Amino acid sequence: MKRRKLLYWGGMAGLGLALGSHYLPRATASDAFESKTSKTSPLFRFVAIGDVGTGNIGQMAIAEVMNDYYRQHPFELVLMAGDNIYEDGNIRRVGATFSRPYHYLRRQNVPFYAVLGNHDIRTNNGIDQINFSGFNMQGRYYTFSKGIVQFFALDTNPNADWSTQLGWLEKNLASSTAIWKIVFAHHTLYSSGIHGSSPELIATLSPLFARYGVQLYLNGHDHNYERTIPLDGTTYLTCGAGAKTRPVFSSDWTARSAARLSFATIDVYPKRLEIQGIGKNGKVFDRGEILIG
After folding, report:
1. Across the chain, how many H-helices and E-strands are there?
2. Considering only Cβ atoms within 10 Å of each terminal Cβ, which end of the chain, N or C, has fewer?
3. Where are the domains of the chain?
4. pTM, 2 dp
5. How many other β-carbons are positioned within 10 Å of the β-carbon of residue 216?
6. What is the DSSP string of 143-172?
7. 164 CB-contact burial (10 Å; exposed 0-12 / middle 13-18 / buried 19+)
């Protein structure tokens, strides 16, 4: 997959995949922050957002809802699924697209971990963002652990060093002893949005996810929210509506999709992950879980 342009196709419902699933019924718009799938406390909680880097009213609105959620249910980190700075990744805009929207969370010392999106590499191939301390990037791809979770950040851009990166990913997945393995990157694998699914990424990454037990893949790129049922053991969660939205449809693998400004929260337990989609109105509009075993 050396430097080949990624293909984005929709309509992948005909793929003959085993669709084993563990997920909860869809939440209604009346659910508020306090509506949880569990009454017990998680080991820790994190948040995922994507395609946020506009500095516009949509980004600011979701940032404020994140602040409110943090006050009621503190979370320990934020994953940023790329396109951190529109339109061309220029680090000179980082004040308007990152420092100002998330100043409250940063004052609470909540760390953000970013990956590069397709817009981010338009200036200096994303190097300035990699070097920006607020994004906590250890390179174009990297890994870090939090409790019983190991996170793997990937560069899914067409000009990524795919040969080296895939070798690194397989080595680190194979050696991981974490209960939960979570991969996050910018581009979609399975998507019912405008960009749609990526057959090349499915062929390249999903076999590794299945072989080494990756339970969750988080991405942006499509400006919507979509949670899949587990596909060969991996749930795919699109969180690309952190600042703007585009239409999204539904596929055979879709557990929930919504074209609404939103972010996702993930509560980590020893034997399950609880996922919530939260909209601009502060309401929970989706709730699902991933189980071990």
Report:
1. 6, 13
2. C
3. 44-291
4. 0.88
5. 23
6. EEEETTEEEEE---STTS-HHHHHHHHHHH
7. exposed
Q: CB of 55 within 8 A of CB of 63?
A: no
**Ranges 37-41, 139-143, 192-196, 208-212: which has the least confidence:** 37-41
- Alpha-carbon Rg for the chain, nearest whole angstrom, is 17
Strands of the 262-268 sheet, one edge to the other: 112-114, 77-80, 44-49, 262-268, 272-279, 284-291
User: Which residue has tokens 């000179």?
Assistant: 92
Q: What is the mean pLDDT of residues 29-39?
A: 49
Contact 22, 286 (CB under 8 A): no
The Cα–Cα gap between 68 and 140 comes to 31
State whether CATH 3.60.21.10 applies to domain 44-291.
yes
Helix, strand, coil percent values for the chain (each to nearest 5)? 25, 25, 50
Instruction: Read off the pLDDT of residues 85-133 as tens digits, 9 standing for 90 and up.
Output: 999 999 999 999 999 999 999 999 999 999 999 999 999 999 999 999 9
Q: List phi, psi (to 5°) of 97.
A: -100, -10
Residue 118 contacts by C-beta under 8 Å, 6 or more apart in sequence?
82, 83, 157, 186, 187, 221
Q: What is the pLDDT of residues 3-29, one digit of tens each?
A: 333 333 333 333 333 333 333 333 333
| Residue (of 12, 42, 37) closest to 23 by Cα position | 37
Contact 226, 254 (CB under 8 A): yes
- Which tokens belong to 200? 């090349």
136-147 burial, b if ≥16 CB within 10 A, otherwise e? bbeebbbbeebe
Strand partners, 88: none
Find the distance separating the first CA and the last CA of the chain, reported in whole Å: 33
